[in-house]
């Protein structure tokens, strides 16, 4: 259950937008129960940034590519990501 008293959705219905609609407690629950990994949460956040940033210009050019590079490096080093 998240802080609003709702149970987070199952993996079959969790997508980029659905994850973005969850609060941090619900996202942590998804990681804890193995529904998604911390890297998947970060990847979903990056996708949301890429979809919205062209309209609002809140993220400086190069930041998203830097984040993607960091994620790819973490995928190849088990245990190097601290959720």
Number of domains: 1
Weakly predicted, low-confidence segments = 8-13
**Topology, number of strands:** 0
Radius of gyration: 14 Å
Structural class, by secondary structure, is: mainly alpha
Mean pLDDT: 75
Count of helical regions: 4
The end-to-end distance, rounded to whole angstroms, is: 19 Å
Major sheet attributes: none
Give the amount of beta strand, in percent: under 5%
Cα shape? flat
SSE arrangement, N to C: HHHH
Helix fraction by DSSP (H/I, runs of at least 4): 55-70%
Structure overview:
By secondary structure, this protein is mainly alpha-helical. The protein has one domain (11-75). The protein is 57% helix and 0% strand. The chain has four helices and no strands. The protein has helices at 16-21, 24-32, 38-56, 63-75. Helix 3 packs antiparallel against helix 4 (63-75). The longest helix has 19 residues, at 38-56. The protein starts with 15 loop residues before the first helix and ends in an 8-residue tail after the last helix. The model is unreliable at 8-13 (pLDDT under 50).
Briefly characterize the structure.
With 83 residues, the chain is mainly alpha-helical.
Chain-wise SSE layout:
Blueprint: H1 16-21, H2 24-32, H3 38-56, H4 63-75
